[in-house]
Design brief:
Layout lengths: L2 H17 L3 E6 L1 H10 L8 E4 L8 E5 L2 H4 L7 E8 L10 H10 L7 E6 L4 E6 L3 H7 L2 E2 L2 E8 L10 E8 L4 H8 L4 H6 L6 E3 L2 E2 L12 E4 L3 E11 L5 E8 L1
Antiparallel strand pairs: 1-3, 2-3, 4-6, 4-8, 5-6, 7-8, 9-14, 10-11, 10-12, 12-13, 13-14
């Protein structure tokens, strides 16, 4: 566990609990979220919530406090930015890496930035609201493409995080088997990801290849992607379990 992060969680939880105020972390990655869940039993009994700006965000901010505890409501200090090419006709096909690399070149610290969701017409960035005006003013280019960046009050209609239904056949409902089939790797390669700390199930580090997922669990594999486990749909003639997952694309 990251000892600096552990100390920060403890400090914020105590401050919220004893002073009756809301306290927020920066954006946490999967490892940070997992560390928090492991530490939770030792923290004071203060209400908490994880949120990244929209349902489905992987990078999330942690808030200690509640309206009941604090006597008032306070939203997460998260801004939503819409980023689009100034001229769609001459725009390059930009990737998540392109957007993130250009943001980091502006001197942004990764913990201040949440998810970057790339869609055909635009990209959407979640960030701490205090740095949003700076990004709007200075984030004007990624690779050779000129950009327009604006703060928007809410996301457009429709699913921000798109998934594709995938049917895989496995002998048993184990995370390692699902990872191997979904990302088309050998069972041994999939199992090697567990001791390397690359597998997370619903935000918690998973160290057991044989862990049985539950419907609704989001299985994240660092460097490969993530999918939502939906469950067994039917049995094949050979006794394999036809399993449905929703792959994030």
């Amino acid at each position: 566990m990251d000892e600096t992060l552990k100390k920060r969680f403890t400090e914020l939880a105590n401050r919220s609990y004893h002073q009756g105020i809301y306290c927020f972390t920066h954006f946490l990655d999967l490892a940070g979220r997992s560390d928090f869940m492991s530490l939770l039993p030792s923290l004071p009994p203060v209400p908490w919530k994880l949120f990244g700006g929209a349902e489905g965000c992987e990078r999330q901010m942690l808030r200690f406090g509640s309206e009941e505890l604090c006597g008032y409501d306070q939203a997460f200090p998260i801004a939503i930015l819409r980023i689009a090419p100034l001229s769609a006709k001459f725009a390059e096909p930009l990737t998540h890496r392109d957007y993130l690399g250009s943001l980091m070149a502006l001197g942004m610290e990764r913990e201040l930035l949440g998810d970057i969701v790339v869609r055909k017409e635009a990209a959407y960035l979640f960030c701490e609201d205090r740095i949003a005006p700076y990004i709007v003013e200075h984030f004007v280019q990624a690779r050779h493409t000129s950009l327009s960046c604006e703060i928007i009050p809410e996301l457009p209609d429709g699913a921000l995080f798109e998934t594709k239904r995938v049917l895989v056949q496995v002998a048993s409902q184990r995370v390692d088997a699902l990872v191997a089939h979904v990302f088309k790797m050998s069972r041994g390669d999939a199992q090697a990801l567990f001791p390397a700390g690359k597998i997370f199930v619903s935000g918690r580090l998973c160290e057991s290849p044989g862990h049985p997922p539950r419907p609704g669990d989001v299985i994240s594999v660092r460097g490969f992607g993530r999918f939502r486990y939906a469950g067994v749909e039917s049995l094949s003639k050979k006794g394999k379990e036809n399993t449905v997952v929703e792959l994030f694309v």
